[in-house]
Amino acid sequence: MFKHELLLSAFLLCVGFFGSIISQNMVRALMCLESIFNAVNLNFITFSNLFGNQRTEGEILPLFIIAVAAAEAATGLALALVIRRNRRSTRIDQLNLLKW
Question: Which CATH class name applies to 3-93?
Fold first, then answer.
């Protein structure tokens, strides 16, 4: 009954992990991280519906995850913009800002 939702969530999780490992662009890595967050949210909502609506943690917790993801996206994109201005590139493998 909930097989399709769980398969979609597993697919989103795999694409997000694969994309975050392979991507060299910082913005693409942030998008893959958002895909991972969406897979987790889909799992919470699917299991909440699977086990009944007596408890609402499965529907409230994704709201907090979305809020954290929005803050992460805003902070990450602001950092990417600053790095783009200073280094003229957003490639992850070319960044050595933390080295002395």
Answer: mainly alpha
